[in-house]
Amino acid sequence: MKYVFSPEAQSTLPIRGTDELFPVNRVYCIGRNYAAHAIEMGHDPDKEPPFFFQKNPDNLLPEGKDFPYPPMTSDVHHEIELAVALKSGGSNLSAGDALDCVFGYAVSLDMTRRDLQGQMKKMGRPWEIGKAFEHSAPCSALVPASDIGHPSEGEIWLKINGATQQEGDLNQLIWKIPEMISYLSDYFSLHPGDVILTGTPAGVGPVEKGDNLHGHIAGVGDLHVKVV
Question: Nearest to residue 185, comparing CAs of 93, 103, 97, 102?
């Protein structure tokens, strides 16, 4: 097969404890999936069905790499999230079958150009300019579900320069992991390599160059990122 130019390299995530790589297909993100965060963003979580937006596969920033402060913004926010990586997929999956599709989990960040996202909201336009920029999804190595099971509770937090900024528990997810996968599969054909960021607890806020971010999810692991 001949290409008109050399294609970009496959986006991947490392797998903890191995030299294998997980090939990333698509990245879905659910919005306002913790009640306290929905409220702090000015929304009523009891009145909204789930909704999703996408990042690009190459937006994932594997652990060990710094997060470069992006251009065209002065208000970049942190959002600590559990990432779910799929090993299989399909359409119209039931919640009861959804976890069979999961390969593993990781600690991730949905970095957001909040000022640009806010401008898009006011104009009723898509959010990609605020969400899907380069390196906008720092992510730890994946931990296979075969090693840790499927976390449904446990603390999730983010510290900046040692001070806690976000904290919650996975049991506070409004839409649980099987429900998210099932719901998405009604609208998209899910595939091996798809990654789902599952939402963030309250406490989102700005980062500055020089900040050291430490994210943690009980049973999954840690993510360390420096803003440069």
Answer: 93
